[in-house]
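Batch manifest, entry 17 of 40.
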Amino acid sequence: WRFAQKMGFSGFDYQNVSEVYDEHCRLTKNTNIDISGLSHRRLREEGSFQWPVTFEDHPGTKRLFTDHQFYTLSGKAQFNTPVNIINRSEPTDKTHPLILMTGRIRDQWHTMTRSGKVNKLNTHVPEPFLEISHFDAIERNLKNGDLAVIKNLRGEVRVKVRVSMDIKSGVVFLPMHWGKILNQDFPRANNLTQALIDPVSKQPDYKFSAVQVVKY
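Output type: structure tokens
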């Protein structure tokens, strides 16, 4: 609101953050996400709520749709697209026996064009890594902190490993955030991912790539 005021826009005469949030709550009245009974004060004094919260003393909604009435014209749940259960991801084999899964880490977002410039966020995980199960690491003579090469027919990645009991044997995890570092693309996850997409949602198949991991 201070930015809008600097630009000379009217309607941003808020005195504090409570006024902003309370206006947001009022805007939801009589919608499917009605939180008109909430306020900044209630959040501070009572903690978190699950919506809808439709009046001032409303305790929050423990679970939606317990009456089996959904937000559709008929009131019934709708599943418009049948699920194709055939897995079209590339299969693993003796040469590439591990499934590579990519994804986010807690304090970064996408390719770190914004979040990577925040020093506090970089203290969480300062460098790229490969998470690998204890059993798969032993099989490859890998110890925590060793440098490993993850490779398949499309390319390779070279990062340090994190040996873990939290990941399933046969699966390895590589964060997606890092690209070129000092003009080298050793940590770039897309060196290994493929161009396969779901025909309906167009979601890319970044969660399932057959790879091999070897000690560098």
